[in-house]
């Protein structure tokens, strides 16, 4: 299966940004970890990060007809981007929402995910391991 792993705004700052909340690993290190865990699985991964809503939407559109699943940490866009939500529902590719931190245990504004009901699952509070759980869910999905 071809899986797109997408990270949104400020996730390029992992390793520097709020280490107590998000951990000490950089995004490259997390992506390497995902690659390592995916070794031996029948999966082809592509990684993408952007701080721009439109770029994330373009990449989702690009995935149409090309990818079998999307793992998305949309960062703060999770909480208010109806445009990203509509992009996910436009492409009809199974998408799993991932958050490093437990968004339900943080500020009130993070409790709401406007993308949750167009995703097949939400995984949060498990750090980088969340991406692996998301991958497993997508690999179990029927084509
Ligand atoms: C996040 C949680 C969001 O609330 C926040 O805006 C992020 C990261 C997470 O991975 O825990 O940028 O998606």
TrEMBL record:
EC number: 4.2.1.10
Reactions catalysed according to its record: 3-dehydroquinate = 3-dehydroshikimate + H2O
Keyword Lyase among record annotations: yes
Pathway: Metabolic intermediate biosynthesis; chorismate biosynthesis; chorismate from D-erythrose 4-phosphate and phosphoenolpyruvate: step 3/7
UniProt key word DNA damage: no
Active site feature: 22, 99
The organism's place on the tree of life at top rank: Bacteria
GO MF, one example: 3-dehydroquinate dehydratase activity
Alphabetized SUPFAM superfamilies for the sequence: Type II 3-dehydroquinate dehydratase
PANTHER family: CATABOLIC 3-DEHYDROQUINASE (PTHR21272)
Protein's job: Catalyzes a trans-dehydration via an enolate intermediate.
Record family assignment: Belongs to the type-II 3-dehydroquinase family.
Protein name: 3-dehydroquinate dehydratase
Gene behind this protein: aroQ
